[in-house]
C-alpha cells in the first residue's frame, strides 16, 4: 500500500522543515525525488541524505517564481530519471520578505512577494509538468497551504493568507479541469509546525487539541497518501492537517 516505485516526484521548498519531510517520505516509498530549494546547499544536503538512506534523489535548486528556471529544471529531472514528473508537491511558500505585519503598516512594495511565490510559483510548476501527466493519464498535484487561507488572524498574516487563499482557489478549479485525464489535484493545509520557535508558538501549541505541533514526518505521511494510487478517487479537496485546531 502507498507504493510509489516507478514514479518521479518534484518537491519544491524541500531543503528544510516540512518540505524535507515530504521528500524523505516519498523517497522511502520508492519514488525518485527531485529536491528543490532556492538555496542550493539545502537541496543538495537533503538529496544526499535520501541517497545515503538507499533512495533515489537529485537536487534541483531554482526559484519557483522564475518560469524559465522551472521549465529548465523539469527538463533536467526528466533526463536524470528517464521519466517525466508525475507527482508535483508545491511546498515553497515563504517569500524572502514574508510580508508579515498588519496590512495598514505595510508598504505596497511588500504586497507582491507572497503572491508571486504561492500563486504564480504554483502556476509555473504545474504548467511545466501537467502536459506530461495528462498525456500519460496519471498524475498527482499536491499543494501545501495553511489554515491562514481560511481563518482570520490578528498576527499580521493578511498577505500570506490572501496568497494561500488564491492558490487554494487555483487548485480547486484545476482539479476539475484535469480530472478526466486521470490527474488529481488536492491541497494540504497545515497547522502550526514544529520549526516555528518562540514563546508565542508554545502558547498556541497548548491550545491544539492533540497538544503538540506538526512535524515534517506528519506532513510527509499525508503527502504520501495524496500521491498514491490509493488516493485516486480524491481530488479538489482541502485537507486540514492541524492536530484538530480547526475542524471542517
Automatic annotation (TrEMBL):
<keyword id="KW-0560">Oxidoreductase</keyword>
<dbReference type="Pfam" id="PF13561">
    <property type="entry name" value="adh_short_C2"/>
</dbReference>
<dbReference type="GO" id="GO:0016491">
    <property type="term" value="F:oxidoreductase activity"/>
</dbReference>
<protein>
    <submittedName>
        <fullName>SDR family oxidoreductase</fullName>
    </submittedName>
</protein>
<dbReference type="InterPro" id="IPR002347">
    <property type="entry name" value="SDR_fam"/>
</dbReference>
<comment type="similarity">
    <text>Belongs to the short-chain dehydrogenases/reductases (SDR) family.</text>
</comment>
<dbReference type="InterPro" id="IPR050259">
    <property type="entry name" value="SDR"/>
</dbReference>
<dbReference type="InterPro" id="IPR036291">
    <property type="entry name" value="NAD(P)-bd_dom_sf"/>
</dbReference>
